[in-house]
Each structure stands twice: as C-alpha cells, then as structure tokens.
UniProtKB/TrEMBL annotation:
Keywords attached to this entry: Cytoplasm, Cytoskeleton
Cell location: Cytoplasm, Cytoskeleton
A GO term from the CC aspect: dynactin complex
Principal cellular location given in the protein's record: cytoplasm
Name listed for the protein in its UniProt record: Dynactin subunit 5
The keyword Hydrolase is annotated on this UniProt entry: no
Length: 284
C-alpha cells in the first residue's frame, strides 16, 4: 500500500465515499478496509465501480478521478526512484575507487580533482564531465549517481552588479566557459541520494537530497532544486527557476505538473543504497 498514513487514508476515504455529502447508501455499496490499512487495489476497484455506475453522471467521478491521479503519482515516483542505468563497463579496473568509496570511471572527465568534494559511496560513470576547475568547489553527497554523458557546470556570475561594466557573456549563457577576471563561479552543491541520468547538463546553484533528474535534461544557470523532487526526461529548466520540495517537473520550459507523496524521500534513499550496493557487487 502506498497510502499507509492514517490522515491520508481518512482523506481518501472521505473523497471516495463522499462521507461529507451524507450519502450513506453509497458508502455501504463500495466498501474498502479503513485506515490505516487502505490498500491501493481497493482504491482502484472502488474507482472502477464508481466510473461504471450511474454515480459518475452526477459529478462524483471527477472527485474519484483525483484520487486515481494521486495514486498513480505515487506509483510513477516509485518507478523513477527504482530506475537504473547500466554502466558501459562493469570491470573494476575501469574505475578509480577513492578513499570515500566513490567509484569514478577512468573515462570520466574530472577537470580538477582537488576541487571535487565527494561525501562517499557515489558512482560517476563514463563520459561524464565535472567542471571543478572554475575556482570553486563541486560537492556531491553520499550515494549519488552521475550518469553517462552528464555534465556538471558551476554557475558563473559577474563579480559586480554595476550595469556600466561590460560583461563578457550574457548572464543566461549556457556555454561551459571558465569565468574571466570580471566573473566568478558559485559552488555547485548536490545533496545525498540524488540521481542524475545520462546526457543531462546541470548548471544549477544547488540540488537537494533525494532528487531524481532524468536523462537529456538541461538545468539553466542559477536554478535551484529543493529536496524530494523529480525532473522528468527531456525537461529544460529556465534560468533562476526554483523548484520547491516534493515537486514533479516536466516540459520545455519546465513547469510543475504535480506533487509527490511524503514517502518519496525514504523510497529514494532505499533505491540509491541498493543501486550502489548492486553496482559494487557486479564489478568484476
């Protein structure tokens, strides 16, 4: 059951059974176990019964549909949490194991290893690029996954806000150019249990913990993503966009299309730990 919280179960029962409308006969006909044992299967069966009955024509189907979408929002979040990108090589000789037990592919391009701060037990796959040579640090939390072809680029801003000074580049530029004398790079901080999939370009200021960023995404300069979020595949975040916690984002430009359940964080933590342990076990 995705909904094992008593308060959430009560709310769902209120919606499905229309308790507040006083239709007691409706509640009696479609019965599911009460909180906290509200099973996902029972929700679906109840919704199907609502849609195939005459009650749907009286407007109750709309409210039931909202429960249906809420349920599948949780299912989609769990599915993305369990996604795994198979590395090109599973040979131990193709990876460098750091003192913090982070595995870095020998084909990965880490521009300045001294400015890369990995908290440990993370995986950086082949063909990924980390621009840690911009004069500021890049921090990667524990149990993180950097997919093949991903690129981490710190945000570059002017040293002065004086409009009379000529800037070398536009502040919204997505080019991977080192900061000039009139510019500076901000730290790029990635929280723990966060996954960045293949061919994604990150120029954010910070990414929280328990975040899933799909493949082929583009995160523009100065964007910020809080904890427990999902950025779907092929999403492009515009400059300065802030993604609040428990948000689901998709599109180009990216927009918030839904919210995630409160269990998202624990599911992502378990998924990242299991993914790392599986990766280490399968190394030859």
């Amino acid at each position: 059951s995705k909904f094992n919280d008593s308060a959430l179960a009560d709310a769902l029962i209120d919606i499905v059974f229309e308790r507040n409308s006083g239709s007691g006969d409706w509640e009696g006909r479609y019965c599911v176990p009460g909180p906290p044992l509200l099973l996902a299967e029972s929700i679906i069966y109840t919704l199907l019964a609502c849609w195939t009955s005459g009650e749907n024509r009286r407007g109750r189907g709309t409210r039931c549909g909202s429960v249906y979408r809420l349920y599948y929002s949780a299912i989609d979040g769990a599915e993305m949490a369990s996604r795994t990108d198979e590395p090109t090589s599973k040979s131990k000789k193709d990876y460098i194991c750091t003192t913090t037990q982070t595995y870095v592919s020998r084909e990965a391009d880490v521009r300045d290893a001294t400015s890369l701060n990995s908290r440990g037990k993370s995986v950086i796959l082949a063909k990924s690029t980390i621009h840690s040579d911009y004069g500021n640090i890049v921090v990667i939390g524990r149990y993180c996954h950097i997919g093949e072809g991903a690129e981490l680029i710190p945000t570059v801003i002017p040293r002065s806000n004086d409009p009379l000074l000529e800037n070398v580049r536009s502040q919204d530029s997505t080019e991977a150019l080192k900061p000039t004398e009139s510019e500076k790079a901000l730290p790029l901080v990635i929280g723990s249990h966060t996954r960045i999939d293949a061919n994604t370009r990150v120029q954010s200021v910070s990414i929280g913990s328990c975040v899933r960023i799909g493949s082929n995404c583009k995160l523009a300069p100065r964007t910020k993503i809080y904890d427990c979020c999902i950025i779907e595949d092929f999403t492009e975040l515009p400059p300065d966009m802030v993604v609040p916690p428990f948000s689901r984002v998709r599109g180009s430009p990216g927009r918030i299309v839904g919210t995630l359940p409160e269990t998202t964080g624990s599911e992502f933590v378990d998924s990242c730990v299991q993914s790392y342990e599986k990766f280490v076990r399968e190394l030859e």
